[in-house]
Amino acid sequence: MDEQTPQRRHIAGLTGQFDSLEAYMEFHKKGRQERTPRGEKHANAKLTEAHVLEIRRSYAAGEKDGPSLSKEYGVSPASIDNIVNGTTWGHVDGISQEQLTTIKQARRLESQAKATDATRKLTESDVRAIRAEYVKGNGKALAAKYGVKQPTISNIITRKIWNHI
């Protein structure tokens, strides 16, 4: 083969129609994307575009949260989150990324404020002590010592909870 001619991977029986495997795959990929129905036209769709717009509007306005919207529309909370984020139903206009970030920060602060001292098992000094005492592998012992479950200790260490301390 000539050094200037690029090597091509030919498909047996299709060499007349496609120059290479890459061309064949690109052709079929584009075809699938164009043939797959989107939104409410999809056979498995549970929602309409009107539902999606209402979900995004009520979420952005702070009227409802993900779990209540999921119950109302009969879909999972993850589906609601994907709709709001634009992961699914991206072809329907929705909340801007800036608005979404602001909404999520406000809701996170609200949920932290709702947790009162009466419902908390741990105090700020307990959390500081847990972080100071933590050594890889002693999460069970710390959980027993402070009367919480091991995932709570893990979440404290990784700052998924009590991240303000």
- Integer tally of domains: 3
* Percentage beta strand: under 5%
Indicate the percent of residues in helices: 40-55%
Q: Structural class of the helices, strands and pairings?
A: mainly alpha
* Elements, N to C (H/E): HHHHHHHH
Report the count of strand segments: 0
- Main beta sheet strand tally, sense and closure: none
Oligomeric state of shown chains = single chain
Q: Could you name the ranges where pLDDT drops below 50 across 5 or more consecutive residues?
A: none
Give the C-alpha Rg. Answer: 26 Å
Distance between the termini: 67 Å
User: What is the residue-mean pLDDT, rounded to a whole number?
Assistant: 79
In DSSP terms (H or I, runs of 4 or more residues), the helix count works out at: 8
Short key terms for the protein model shown above:
3 domains, 8 helices, 165 residues, mainly alpha
How is this fold's topology laid out?
Blueprint: H1 21-35, H2 49-60, H3 66-73, H4 77-85, H5 97-114, H6 124-133, H7 139-146, H8 150-157
Helix pairs in contact: 3-4, 7-8
Give a description of the structure:
With 165 residues, the protein is mostly helical. It folds into three domains: 36 residues; 69 residues, no CATH class; 34 residues, no CATH class. It is built from eight helices and no strands. It is extended, with a radius of gyration of 26 Å. The termini are far apart.
Can you summarize this structure?
The chain is an all-alpha fold. It is built from 8 helices and no strands. The chain folds into 3 domains: 9-44; 46-114, no CATH class; 124-157, no CATH class.
